[in-house]
């Protein structure tokens, strides 16, 4: 793919978040459940540096840690931030049979329409993340959990009496979920949007030229910050971080709104992002006005993936710095599940025959 097509794809995908869904992209390129949660910049790169590091021992450590944390939040879950590492997932046929029996029938049909296995994987895991989140947050049994979609296709929990907000995103090697439990007596309902970005540019052309093509997507202040970084790598990181923030905001607000991206202007706070700590000091100015009821969490999942969570109506005094993303394993995702559907070998065979994206 040339850089030019890459940028068009990128712009289109941003378009579906910001400027109403682009039907052509949606249908022709590949069937996508989450439109904009699908890889954005993945299309803008020509080469892929494969970093399929195996993370055995590290994973085990993370899991222990997460279990402890889940135990802690088990009493009163407020925030959940989970990341699933798709690249190191090596499901057996049994895993796949189980996973596809644990999602709602209409979602199973939806998933089958993906052309590429990568998208199928990411979206299947997205569904499992949602189910686990609701199970942990509400105590509902897995076979009682029911999701529906609103007119824009955004999923919500159908069960009455439980107020949860969540959003899913996938790019690079991760599927992520950010969720929160809405307190019963809160006056202004909080909302959430999440975006994960792989920090990578393999566009071939000089970075400066890429920036020039993206010119209209950032405000002058944002460009001052991005281009003010010394090294190219730092500029790229600043660019991705800014982009990730914008996407998280747009995902929170919802698809279908029309915004001039230059008017959604972020002032980056702390220069460094971390894996085990969240920074919340980037500020958003919309049409030159500082938005006070918004808060943004930023962190790294690993050194190549940044993630941003946009929160509206979260009290300013609420401490969000512990809300970094924790890795969940497949075993954790399906633990305690009660399959909703019969095991379907034909279905899984079709899935296994799906091809992978070429650019990998
Ligand atoms: C996707 O899932 C298949 C099984 O369905 C697995 O073999 C493969 O490793 C996964 N690949 C990616 C990129 O997630
Ligand atoms: C996340 O938010 C976007 C934008 O509102 C929406 O299109 C998408 O369906 C949401 N996904 C989930 C899993 O909530
Ligand atoms: C959504 C959006 O404004 N995208 C723009 C990003 O920048 C490119 C190049 O300037 C435009 O073509 C896109 O429309």
UniProtKB/TrEMBL annotation:
GO terms for molecular function: holo-[acyl-carrier-protein] synthase activity. It holds the Pfam family ACPS. Residues 88-179 form the 4'-phosphopantetheinyl transferase N-terminal domain. It catalyses: apo-[ACP] + CoA = holo-[ACP] + adenosine 3',5'-bisphosphate + H(+); apo-[ACP] + acetyl-CoA = acetyl-[ACP] + adenosine 3',5'-bisphosphate + H(+). Keywords: Signal, Transferase. The keyword Signal applies. It comes from the Eukaryota. Its EC number is 2.7.8.7. Residues 192-310 form the 4'-phosphopantetheinyl transferase domain. InterPro entries: 4-PPantetheinyl_Trfase_dom, 4-PPantetheinyl_Trfase_dom_sf, AASDHPPT_N, P-Pant_transferase_sf. It is an enzyme of class 2 (transferase). Residues 1-23 form the signal peptide. Belongs to the P-Pant transferase superfamily. AcpS family. This is L-aminoadipate-semialdehyde dehydrogenase-phosphopantetheinyl transferase.
